[in-house]
Automatic annotation (TrEMBL):
Stored InterPro entries: KH_dom-like_a/b, OsmC/Ohr_fam, OsmC/Ohrsf
Pfam families xrefs: OsmC
Domain of life: Bacteria
Name of the protein in its database record: OsmC-like protein
């Protein structure tokens, strides 16, 4: 579970149960990630976490980076694609196509974030309800 707390105008801090936190704010706000940037980071991060072991084992290098961005609809109110580009050294790889196949398969099968995005997960919104008060017996 993630807890989110308002810490200032348009500023929030998200915290997980392991004590990690990230500052969230509006797009362009200094020192924070926007919600869309977090979605993009989640997609790239999931691809990297999922493929890290096989890439490092087969390349013999510990250098692995990713770049991702949100492609938004014309209205700007919807993300329609999050292209993720992984970068790693192929100089020691004998069969580049085989590595590409294994990396794609790993991400497609085990990356929860990208699999969820493909299915268009719902995000039901729950709002507080007014407290029910008992009628005054007098």
């Amino acid at each position: 579970m993630i807890n989110l707390e308002r810490v200032g105008e348009h500023e929030f801090v998200a915290t997980n149960g392991r004590g990690a936190s990230v500052r969230i704010g509006r797009k362009g706000q200094e020192g924070s990630f926007s919600p869309v940037e977090l979605l993009v980071a989640a997609a790239a991060g999931c691809a990297m976490v999922t493929s890290e072991t096989v890439i490092l084992r087969r390349t013999g290098s510990d250098r692995l980076t990713a770049e991702a961005d949100a492609v938004q609809s014309e209205s700007g109110n919807e993300v329609i694609s999050i292209p993720v580009t992984l970068s790693y050294d192929l100089s020691a790889v004998e069969d580049v196509e085989a590595l590409e196949t294994v990396v794609r398969r790993a991400v497609e099968q085990f990356c929860t974030v990208t699999r969820t995005l493909k299915q268009s997960a719902t995000a039901p919104l729950q709002l507080p309800t007014p407290l029910q008060t008992a009628p005054d017996p007098l």
